[in-house]
Amino acid sequence: MPAEDFTQGNLLRAVGECGLERYRAFVTLATTLRDATRAYADAQETIARPQDAWRTADVAWQELEFFRFGPAGSSGLPGGKDLRNLIYYYPDSSDCQVDQALVNQAFLMGAQALNVSARGLGALEYLLFYSGDANSCSSGTLINTPASGGVTPWQAIDPAERARRRSAYATVLADDLLLQANALVAGWDPAQGNFLTQFATAGAGSTLFARAYDAFNVVDDAMWYLDVEVKDYKLAIPAGISPVCTPGPCPQLVESRFSSMSNANIRANISGFRLLFNGCGANYSGLGFDDWLRTIGRADLADSMTSALINADNAVAALPLPLEQMVTSNLLPVQQAYTAIQAVTTLFKADFTTALNLQRPAVNEGDND
């Protein structure tokens, strides 16, 4: 049971305080990752330390993917500053862009000189976990085009120098990650940017949200991450369930395949959805959207969605190997995980949205999957 009675204002404040609390925790994890990456670059630590720090920060961020509103959200949204994309540009990060920056050393000019697809947690994973000699660019890319003597710009860099550049590049990105994480906290903090108050007082004095429903709709938009990025991009496409991967499977499209964190990411995503739906307290206690459903007489839907979320988490937890291995060796459990998540999103897209009179995101108006 929630510690306070449900009102729309109380739920908005609970959601906002949940996000700010977790952003602050992420700053701590980003600091650890920054320090570990610097120590590795200075040859004071093995690469295992920044790798471990990256895994911890990654899982925390996967929950925060569901808080893509306010400063984390698009600049086209109220209070949006596009900060999420600078922290994690999934699914549009590019390993090839990272390799190109290793060759031209654009990272020496700072993270702001880099393409957004070559920044953030995705690029850091590639730099910290991939140790092969090949790059991820096509043969027609400039770094793979032979110059005089038949040597490509990539081949002209010996492995030791390439490793040095990777660690130097990683420190630039780790520094920038912490910078953006601090900017998120500052944007939400009542003592600084104060988006928290603007959000919590939607329809009751907020200058960004004229109605409470305007604030709830941006949260609802963020919750579609479970349907689009998780169900489709993280499962359907690499497993060949989606026509985007034809013929399937496409293990190269699995998220976080270098760190083997694909399964953990999806479980953290389900947890992030539950923080909003069930509540942000211990064991998902506290105010959540399920309490709103119960208040309007839809306890049946609240219970059905909670049960479906637990089933989805169990299905992903049951995968015996990382997803990049499962899609090529044992597809049935992956399909079962997909179906379990689809059961959640089917309820979310139809019954949940209708019951609370929320608007479907315009980009998903025609989505009936």
Molecular structure report:
The chain has 14 helices and no strands. The two termini are 33 Å apart. With 369 residues, the chain is mostly helical. The chain is globular, with a radius of gyration of 21 Å. The model has no long low-confidence stretch (mean pLDDT 96). The longest helix has 34 residues.
**Morphology call:** globular
How do the SSEs run, as a string of H and E? HHHHHHHHHHHHHH
Distance between the termini: 33 Å
Largest beta-sheet characterization: none
Q: Which residues form runs of ≥5 with pLDDT under 50?
A: none
Report the total helices. Answer: 14
- Radius of gyration, in Å, reads 21 Å
Total beta-strand segments: 0
Query: What percentage of amino acids are in beta strands?
Result: under 5%
Question: In brief, what are we looking at here?
Answer:
With 369 residues, the protein is mostly helical. It contains 14 helices and no strands.
Write the layout of secondary structure elements.
Layout: H1 8-41, H2 48-64, H3 83-87, H4 95-104, H5 120-129, H6 159-188, H7 195-200, H8 212-223, H9 225-239, H10 262-277, H11 289-295, H12 299-317, H13 323-329, H14 331-355
Helix pairs in contact: 1-2, 1-6, 2-5, 2-10, 5-6, 9-10, 9-14, 10-12, 11-12, 12-14
List keywords for this structure.
369 residues; mainly alpha; 0% strand
